[in-house]
Design brief:
globular; binds N,N,N-trimethyl-histidine; 12 strands; alpha/beta
């Protein structure tokens, strides 16, 4: 991702593959639509992860040292974060990191109300690049990273490795890292999760064009694009595309672009892992998986990792 929507969209239109970084899906409306997706019957990851966390909160808390500072990548769904913070033994504080200052402030307020007397230090950060922690942290024993939702699956293997390495440095000696990953499974389950019968994911995907038209004064013809979720085996992943149903001409920033029927804009990749595969990826970044929990159908896994010396 570059710094601006404009540069990323122009680059995507010029290059074959037409890849737009998925972070741009999450404007205000996109975030609302994603929240609606998490409640769809066919979108199993959110409710499966919440049920795994709920079932194992005591085991999770038992392996986190007292007086830990919790650093969450993302500003958190209160459905996951508040129960975790309540289960931990005297957490020293909570640091939610998010790219959106407005979203972060709102989430921090909700959390403060749900977990009283816990120091909350919201911090604007883009965790797709190197980032810092706030300077004014409360005293604490060690750090616990929290990265739920399989959001790490949006990164390429290379970027996921870089992020895990960066967190190793940032969270320091003896750190723990609690992370959710979506597991590889049949396309019969995966495809409906990303192409629901209600059409919410299609609207989420198409909202990117609405955003581009509004913010960049472009003229994408929304009716010409169809949402598609595609499954690939190597590496296992779902890709979201916006497929042109007929030739499309788009004007933007004084330039004109032609897309042929069948060409598509690639708007998101969501990697699916095996526990062994992710464990190997983590090991390369000096994290060892100490505990793993999953649902009865092995759809989703929650991993506890511990930092090892580099
Ligand atoms: C927020 C990245 C975890 O990949 O499952 C849901 C985003 N995209 N439906 C995912 C998403 C379409 C989601 N993550």
């Amino acid at each position: 991702m570059t710094q601006t929507l404009k540069d990323d969209v122009l680059a995507a239109l010029r290059e074959p593959g037409h890849r737009i970084p998925s972070t741009w899906l999450y404007d205000q409306r996109g975030s609302e639509l994603f929240e609606a997706i998490t409640r769809l019957p066919s979108y199993y990851p959110t409710r499966t992860e919440i049920s795994i966390l709920d079932a194992h909160l005591a085991d999770i808390a038992a392996v986190v040292p007292t007086d830990s500072l919790v650093v969450e990548l993302g500003s958190g769904s209160s459905r996951k974060t508040a129960p975790l913070l309540r289960a931990l033994e005297q957490p020293a504080g909570y640091v939610p990191l998010d790219i959106s200052a407005a979203y972060l402030a709102e989430a921090a307020e909700t959390l403060r109300a749900q977990v009283p007397n816990l120091p909350v230090h919201p911090w604007v950060a883009d965790f797709t690049t190197a980032f810092d922690l706030p300077p004014d942290l409360p005293a604490h024993a060690g750090r616990l990273g929290f990265f739920p939702g399989s959001t790490i699956g949006n990164l390429t293997a290379e970027n996921a490795h870089a992020l895990l390495r960066h967190c190793h440095t940032l969270l320091g000696d003896g750190a723990r890292f609690l992370l959710g990953i979506d597991l590889d499974k049949s396309p019969e389950v995966l495809i409906p999760a990303y192409d629901d019968p209600e059409g919410v994911t299609a609207e989420f995907n198409r909202n990117l064009l609405v955003r581009i038209n509004r913010e960049l004064d472009a003229n994408f013809d929304l009716a010409a694009f169809r949402h598609e979720a595609r499954y690939f085996e190597d590496p296992p992943r779902i890709e979201m595309h916006l497929v042109c149903e007929r030739p499309v001409s788009v004007q933007m920033a004084g330039e004109s672009f032609e897309l042929e029927a069948g060409e598509s804009l690639h708007t998101e990749t969501s990697h699916k892992y095996s526990i062994a595969g992710f464990t190997a990826l983590a090991a390369e970044a000096d994290w060892v998986v100490s505990h793993q929990w999953h649902d009865a159908e092995s759809r989703f896994a929650v991993l506890m990792m511990q930092s090892t010396p580099d």
